[in-house]
Amino acid sequence: MQRLTVHLVIGARPNLPKVAALRRACLASPGIVPILVHTGQHASPALNEDLARDLGLPRPDLEVHAVAEGGTRRLSEMMRGYDALLEQAPPDAVVVVGDVDSTLACALTAARRRIPLAHVEAGLRCADRGMPEEQNRRLVDRIADRLYTHCAEATAALLSEGVPRDAIVQAGNVMIDTLMAQRGAARRPESLPPGLVDRPFGVVTLHRPELVDRPELLNPMMEALHAAARRLPLVFPVHPRTAMRLRQGPRGLSGPLHEVAPLPYNEFLWLTSHARVVITDSGGVQEETSFLGRPCLTVRPDTERPVTVRLGTNRVIGRDAAALMPALLDELARPELPVAPAIPGWDGRAAQRIIADLARWRGLSAAA
Ligand code: UDP
Description:
This protein has 368 residues and is α/β, with parallel strands linked by helices. The protein has 2 domains: 4-173 and 346-367, Rossmann fold, CATH 3.40.50; 184-333, Glycogen Phosphorylase B (Rossmann fold). It is 42% helix and 15% strand. It is built from 15 helices and 13 strands. It has helices spanning 15-27, 49-55, 71-88, 101-112, 132-143, 152-160, 174-182, 209-212, 215-231, 240-248, 265-274, 283-292, 307-310, 324-333, 350-361; strands spanning 4-10, 32-38, 62-63, 93-97, 117-120, 146-149, 168-170, 202-205, 234-237, 257-260, 277-280, 296-298, 314-316. A 7-stranded parallel β-sheet has the order 3-2-1-4-5-6-7, sandwiched between helices. Strands 10-9-8-11-12-13 form a 6-stranded parallel β-sheet, sandwiched between helices. Strand 9 (234-237), helix 10 and strand 10 form a beta-alpha-beta unit. The longest helix has 18 residues, at 71-88. It starts with a strand and ends in a 7-residue tail after the last helix.
């Protein structure tokens, strides 16, 4: 029987839900053998194993133990480690997802070895070219052989940059595939104070270096969040990067802002599904809230996911802490949406479409 071995690369938290959907689709496709590769970019169990368990992802088949703290040293460690794996046993194709450093490191390594490279979630663009994720996605889209987009805006961005039409497949959103698959398993977090989520509450996530590594932005934002939490109780699963920055910041802020450790996927999904408002700088959370029809306030200057603003429930309010309370009050004054708006291709079958296309593209016969 004809076989196609496919590396699915995981490095950081947002990769797990996307790869979980792709792996499921591979396993359902005769002849496709998925191989999970973990680069070690996010090593903390709260960002890895806790999600993997909920998502039914097994231990990675292959691991690169990148240990440097970040930046170009970690990129080069990941490249060197992944190159050694590719040298030992090159797969028939490498699939990278999203825009984290592992995405770039493994994409470039595979491209140098001329292994067919597919990028899932291609074509997302924002104006901030200094953002590492923006650099990663632009670079990976230049070298990928097959580009899977999740909305018309992303397809249009690639075409405007000169990517050949026949290399692009507008396949839909794999992160939403996983959200739909996990919805029935969403569970109320046990670690929260009694009664907190029995009344209207909000959820906060912040982790982008452009905000959390800048005390002049983070400190006022924390004050604004404490003030906001007096109006609407807020649950804040704190990313390890943000926790480290908060430990270095001023003390003495207290209020009904409930800081907790990062949550396993199914608990976070329960929270976002029930939240009155979500305040975030996450990319994936903007998509998930749009799909769920929950209002989202994005504390960034812009978004690479304009479809969530156009068809979803997302409002981009910038990083200025002064904007938070007015935006929250405005949101609370609006009636809740009766149903979430439908976004084309965010339908639970994106990974299936991607893997079917990948098989055709790599010449795996339908009969295999
Ligand atoms: N997430 C989670 N637990 C949390 C916070 C987020 O499982 O405490 C999930 C969330 O549902 C989404 C993903 O993590 O699927 C988003 O990852 P993150 O915000 O770290 O990255 P980004 O999407 O900004 O690249």
